[in-house]
Specification:
Largest sheet: none
Low-confidence stretches: none
Order of helices and strands: HH
Structural class: mainly alpha
Strand content: under 5%
Radius of gyration: 32 Å
Helix content: 40-55%
Mean pLDDT: 83
């Protein structure tokens, strides 16, 4: 019976090193202060409306002052999506 041929293994060549790519992160330092400001303005608007029995901040809005307060809070949540 004939002998099988012995295969020569190729020398190990390590894979080429990948070069690191720079990731450009934009500065979002404005997000946290704006988000917190909107939360606080909305909370203060609702609290002032309840404490003053609807006389302040604007009398003509009536119960719509609650919607305005929650609108500020919703705006704060909207801004928070920009935070990285």
């Amino acid at each position: 019976m004939p002998k099988s041929r012995i295969r020569k293994k190729a020398d190990f060549t390590p894979p080429q090193a990948k070069q690191a790519t720079n990731i450009k992160l934009t500065s979002r330092s404005w997000v946290a202060p704006v988000m917190l400001a909107l939360f606080l303005i909305g909370l203060a608007w609702i609290v002032v409306f309840y404490v003053t029995d609807g006389d302040l901040p604007i009398q003509d809005l009536g119960n719509w002052n609650i919607v305005v307060g929650f609108g500020f809070i919703a705006g704060g949540f909207g801004v928070s999506t920009q935070w990285k």
